[in-house]
TrEMBL record:
Pfam family membership, one: ABC_tran
InterPro entries: AAA+_ATPase, ABC1_TM_dom, ABC1_TM_sf, ABC_transporter-like_ATP-bd, P-loop_NTPase, Type_1_exporter
Chain ranges of the ABC transporter domain: 402-631
Organism field: Streptomyces evansiae
Protein name per Swiss-Prot or TrEMBL: ABC transporter ATP-binding protein
Stretches for region Disordered: 1-62
Keywords: ATP-binding, Membrane, Nucleotide-binding, Transmembrane, Transmembrane helix
């Protein structure tokens, strides 16, 4: 018996290129930052990132949830409701095709009887013509039904895709980062592809096959109740095998989906961080991690394969058993004059035909398991974002005072990375945040920019929580950046669609991107695969130029110039400061060369704000900052 093997849609590569900062490893550039602009990227780089981000929920479970069975059913019904007419047309045409398919076996039995009766050739010809007409009708109706089913499926898949895209864009940036690119890519490509095939093919096929089974069995019972009952025998075997399978399949397919996502995540991270891996000699460790994921994915796939290897032979047995039983029993009945030859033939043909819908049913039920698991993963995004329209962002109306009140934040719900921070930053103030490694500086920067929502307290700009601000008000620039597939102009114009070439060139010049002037194609230079691949420093300058064009009210810089050589970095920072005069700038400083120019310096230690004042005040106070300053100058 040949089974149509539904294949999973292969994962397609994302259209946009990944971030290009050279020192990245497992970094996951965020696509969008709530309340901040797309010119920003967040997260930590290189060795740091490998250690803790993207964070997985405890136990290695994916950070993104998976929808429950009833939510998946609700979503599927909503898709049918949204295209009720298309669905009904497909189902009705399929039912008609099934009806036409029942005519031929019955007519064949009639032919045998008429021949035995000694009826003439014209009668047999008429019956044969009937078979031909019924078969033709079945072919045409089936084709028409498939067309409608495919159209319905395509429209439904488009809806699923659109909703997924909307939810993806609404994902809080911190959740997107923790989920990891691999999981999101698999959900957005492989899973949606599987859902599409399920909706387009599996759904209608299962429905029609489920209708065919009682109709065919009913036709066989009508011809001969005893022979028709043999069909029940085969169905019982198949039913038992299917039940065994269905009990185990959902968990097995979910595990397979998760293992694939984890593998994709690991491979993506390895590719993105290839350079760092090489620099730190981490190849063996990374390879071991990838191989570990491959082993898990392999085990998960073996698990589902084992289930199929029991299901399919059992189904084959269930398909042939009733035919063999009907022929044996039919032969006996006919020999005793209890059944006509035509009835035995018609029954055997019906029971043989019964295996087709049963086989289709199981084949697609198997696929339906995958489809349901994939749909649960796709719908899982809705559990994070919901479907409620995103409230319109509120624009602050005051003078631009930034306030942190009782702010605390914990990544794991256990230890506070930032605690009890009260701070008011005046409009236009330059604040530099310093402190030892792991003190919470970056976390503070992310809280201020709205990239992270505080676990406690509030971060507001003129009283409005920063994560609800319109894009571009508060911008976070880190050392991880995103280069979009397209020209240099398109990459810059993302931040300012109305800016002219002169504005774009000025922004590039301000951030010291002299390389851009030397490009033969200038702003038309294509960036990304197949085009120019700028190095980490150039990508950082591109991001800073985008930030300038965005002209934010508050700018948070965290290692924003770390990949640029120190002299150019200092020049770039001064130029930025001049251009951003009047804007509030908060700099997370890992080098202390800018602290002297700042209005105030904030010192973070163990998540708390321990010192706050001007450079002179803090040096005079002889505390932590004074120590850091002395160490910086080698005193
Ligand atoms: N994504 C994350 N998931 C879990 N823990 C994190 C995450 N990011 C930071 N942390 C933890 O929060 C604490 C503060 O980290 P943070 O990066 O804010 O400090 P930092 O002062 O910027 O350090 P550095 O100077 O090394 O960048 C650290 O203990 C760190 O391990």
């Amino acid at each position: 018996m040949t089974r149509p093997r539904p294949e999973r849609t292969p994962a397609k590569p994302a259209r946009e290129t990944a971030g290009k900062a050279s020192a990245q490893t497992a970094g996951t550039a965020s696509v969008r930052t709530a309340g901040t602009a797309s010119a920003t990227t967040t997260g930590k780089a290189s060795a740091k990132t490998t250690g803790r981000a993207p964070a997985k929920a405890p136990g290695g479970a994916p950070a993104l949830p998976v929808a429950a069975g009833r939510d998946v059913l609700r979503a599927a019904l909503a898709l049918v409701r949204a295209d009720r007419r298309g669905f009904l047309a497909a189902v009705l045409l399929n039912v008609c095709a099934v009806g036409a398919g029942l005519v031929a076996p019955w007519l064949l039995g009639e032919i045998v009887e008429r021949v035995r009766d000694g009826s003439g050739v014209p009668t047999v010809d008429r019956l044969a013509a009937g078979i031909l007409a019924a078969s033709l009708a079945q072919i045409l109706l089936t084709r028409w039904a498939r067309l409608h089913a495919h159209r319905f499926g395509e429209r439904a898949q488009a809806r699923v895709r659109e909703r997924f895209a909307a939810r993806l864009l609404a994902l809080p940036p911190a959740v997107a980062e923790r989920a990891g690119t691999g999981d999101l890519v698999v959900r957005g490509t492989t899973d949606i592809g599987t859902v599409g095939t399920t909706l387009r093919d599996a759904g209608p096929e299962v429905f029609v096959a489920a209708l065919q089974v009682p109709l065919i069995l009913g036709a066989a019972v009508l011809v001969s109740p005893l022979l028709g009952a043999c069909g029940v025998l085969g169905l019982a075997v198949t039913w038992a095998a299917a039940r065994w399978y269905m009990r185990r399949a959902p968990a097995a397919y979910l595990a397979e989906g998760e293992a694939n996502a984890a593998l994709a995540e690991e491979v993506t991270a390895s590719a993105a961080g290839a350079r760092t891996t090489e620099v730190y000699g981490l190849a063996a460790r990374r390879l071991a991690r990838v191989l570990d994921r491959v082993a898990v994915a392999h085990r998960a796939r073996e698990g589902t394969l084992a289930l199929r290897s029991v299901l399919f032979p059992a189904v084959d047995f269930g398909a042939f058993l009733p035919v063999a039983a009907a022929l044996l029993l039919g032969g006996l009945l006919h020999a005793h004059g209890l059944a006509s030859l035509g009835a035995v033939l018609a029954c055997a043909l019906y029971l043989r035909k019964l295996s087709e819908p049963v086989d289709i049913l199981l084949q697609w039920l198997e696929f339906l398991q995958r489809g349901t698991a994939s749909f649960a993963r796709v719908e899982g995004l809705g559990l994070v974002t919901g479907d409620a329209p995103v409230p319109a962002p509120r624009a602050p109306t005051g003078d631009g005072t930034l306030r942190l009140a009782g702010v605390r934040h914990s990544y794991d719900g256990d230890r506070d990375a930032v605690r009890d921070v009260d701070l008011t930053v005046r409009p236009g103030e330059r604040l530099v945040v310093v402190g030892p490694s792991g003190a919470g500086k970056t976390t503070l920067g992310r809280l201020v920019s709205g990239a992270e929502t505080p676990s406690g307290g509030a971060v507001t700009l003129d009283g409005v929580p920063v994560h609800t601000l319109p894009p571009g008000r508060v911008v976070l620039v880190t050392q991880e950046h995103h280069v979009f597939l397209g020209t240099l102009r398109e990459n810059l114009a993302l931040a300012a669609p109305d800016a002219g070439d002169a504005d774009l060139e000025r922004a590039l010049a301000t951030v010291g991107a002299d390389w851009a002037r030397e490009l033969p194609a200038g702003l038309d230079t294509v960036l990304g695969p197949g085009g120019l691949s700028p190095d980490g420093a150039a990508v950082q300058q591109l991001s800073l130029a985008r930030t300038l064009l965005l002209d934010p009210g508050v700018l948070v810089l965290d290692e924003a110039t770390s990949l640029i050589d120190p002299r150019t970095a200092r020049r770039t920072e001064r130029a930025l400061a001049a251009v951003l005069a009047g804007r509030t700038v908060i700099t997370v400083a890992h080098r202390l060369h800018t602290t002297r120019d700042a209005d105030r310096v904030a010192v973070m230690e163990d998540g708390a704000l321990t010192e706050l004042g001007t450079h002179e005040e803090l040096v005079g106070a002889g505390g932590t900052y004074a120590g850091l300053w002395r160490a910086w100058h080698g005193a």
